[in-house]
Amino acid sequence: MKKVIWITGAGSGIGEALAKACNHEDHTIILSGRNKTQLESVSKNIINSFILPLDVTQENQIKQAVTLVKSTFRKIDILINNAGVSQRATVSETANEVGRNLMEVNFFGSIHLTKAVLPMMLGANQGSIVAMSSAAGKFGFPLRSYYSASKHALHGFYESLSLELKDTKVHVMVVCPGRIKTDISKNALTGSGESHNQMDQGQLHGISVEKCASKIVQGISKKKAEIYIGGNEILLIYIKRYLPFLFRRIAKRVNPK
Ligand SMILES: NC(=O)c1ccc[n+]([C@@H]2O[C@H](COP(=O)([O-])OP(=O)(O)OC[C@H]3O[C@@H](n4cnc5c(N)ncnc54)[C@H](OP(=O)(O)O)[C@@H]3O)[C@@H](O)[C@H]2O)c1
User: Fold this and answer.
1) Cα–Cα nearest to 173, from 186, 183, 158
2) Domain total of the chain
3) Which residue puts its alpha carbon closest to atom 16 of ligand 1?
4) Residue 185 Cα: closest atom of ligand 1
5) Which residues does 203 contact at the CB level (< 8 Å), separation at least 6?
6) Side-chain half-sphere CA neighbours of 204 within 13 A
7) Is the pTM for the entire model greater than 0.85?
8) Which residues line ligand 1 (CB under 6 A)?
9) Which end is more exposed in the chain, N or C (fewer Cβ atoms within 10 Å of the end residue's Cβ)?
């Protein structure tokens, strides 16, 4: 079946890999992000792409983008809320406005776009909404206070939404990646809002974006509610759940960079 797939944060990392993983002559991939040049470069490898620059923190841009998608394609089959920014600063170092910005991108950006797309999916009684959380959405971690809080918030929102949608065919999935090899640590914000600009060891040795994207695509087709993707660090999610005292012992020793 021909599908319209909308990916935010599609200009790099996991978003770019998702666009490639969904690339098929039958599908149209809507590529969103703030950097149009990056979206254009990704679109060169996609058979049917539609470049739609979008800053997810701007509600007026979301409204305009959804109106355009609605009039152009009449439907959205899959929305992947992948756009996100990480943090590399302690609580004390992080300025309030930087923390607020992390919440705006990672939490409000995701849920505002979802809310704007939902009426179309409910009207068609079909579709998948994907929210990109993180292993840090399942436990706290040093230098990630606001990032972790923003990702935890996604779980409360999307679990509530999926329960509200129980009698519909609209599917909701939350993705928790561990360490994936992307530039996320370079793009992460310091306490003053500058780019951290350093490749962390965790990311450097993380799993490939291709593997991550393929697991996400599998999760969507199997209509999973929540998936975990990564290496051994994913064990921490289970340790935190079943042995919280052990989680604290281990997490204190993990290098946060
Ligand atoms: N890599 C990992 O280890 C890892 C682990 C757990 C979770 N994740 C999550 O995976 C997602 C993708 O991250 P990544 O690893 O692929 O890192 P990335 O390469 O830095 O990708 C982040 C993307 O988000 C976009 N973005 C940032 N702010 C935006 C905004 N205001 N509006 C629209 N787009 C925005 C960026 O594009 P522009 O700058 O052009 O807007 C960029 O393409 C994020 O949600 C991240 O939290 C990643």
Assistant:
1) 158
2) 1
3) 13
4) 20
5) 179, 180, 181, 182, 183, 184, 185
6) 7
7) yes
8) 8-9, 11-15, 33-35, 38, 54-57, 82-86, 105, 109, 132, 134, 177, 179-180, 182-184, 187, 203, 206
9) N
Q: Is 238 one of the catalytic residues?
A: no
- Residues facing 227 on adjacent strands: 175
Nearest-angstrom CA–CA distance, 84 and 187: 10
- Options 147, 158, 228, 238, the catalytic residue: 147
195 Cα: distance to centroid of ligand 1 (angstroms): 13
Pocket test residue of 7, 36, 64, 82 for ligand 1, highest count of atoms within 8 A of CB: 82
One digit per residue, the tens of pLDDT, for the chain of length 257 reads: 799 999 999 999 999 999 999 999 999 999 999 999 999 999 999 999 999 999 999 999 999 999 999 999 999 999 999 999 999 999 999 999 999 999 999 999 999 999 999 999 999 999 999 999 999 999 999 999 999 999 999 999 999 999 999 999 999 999 999 999 999 999 999 999 999 999 999 889 999 999 999 999 999 999 999 999 999 999 999 999 999 999 999 999 888 88
Q: How far is the CA of 184 from the centre of ligand 1 (A)?
A: 6
- CATH for 166: 3.40.50.720
Kind of pairing between the strands at 4-8 and 28-32: parallel
- 46 Cβ contact list (under 8 Å, min separation 6): 19, 20, 23, 29, 31
Instruction: Record the tokens describing residue 28, joined without a space.
Output: 């149209």
Ligand 1, residue 14: give the atom nearest the CA: 16
For residue 83, give the ligand 1 atom closest to its CA. 24
The pair of three-digit structure tokens given for residue 229, joined into one six-digit string: 């993707």
